[in-house]
């Protein structure tokens, strides 16, 4: 059996409850290191759902919970530091959450606004997502794909640790790009 890709004719075609497929989704981040390069990482454990209302898209609700301990930058020493009180303080704040407060359609997809909570601090963010289409996989699951990113300031979430460089500047950028490559499966 082959997969078939198609784009829904209307938002109503997306009506229903969707579950993020963690094996085909990436929730990542990018930070500048030493002012000269980028370090990329991801969270490997998360779960999320979206309840889409095709009659009133603004009533769509999205919830995402990320296990902060699942942070992975491919360097265990750096990951340990990111888990510490200097950064994510995972003993006190084991989860990062996002709860939507609004959804708006755009020409290429949607803008998802919601409350992002990191290290016990909540701020509103708006993430623009491109809609990548839908496909029925070989197991009969209807999947929808979305890709988006947003830049946040980590200091807005009480993540303030840094180290000054001899040449000027700091070791870790304040601005962090959050990246979302989402594959969601429509619940039966």
TrEMBL record:
Source domain of life: Bacteria
Domain Lipid/polyisoprenoid-binding YceI-like: 17-185
SUPFAM superfamilies to which the protein is assigned, alphabetical: YceI-like
Family matches, as Pfam families: YceI
Family statement: Belongs to the UPF0312 family.
Name of this chain's protein: Lipid/polyisoprenoid-binding YceI-like domain-containing protein
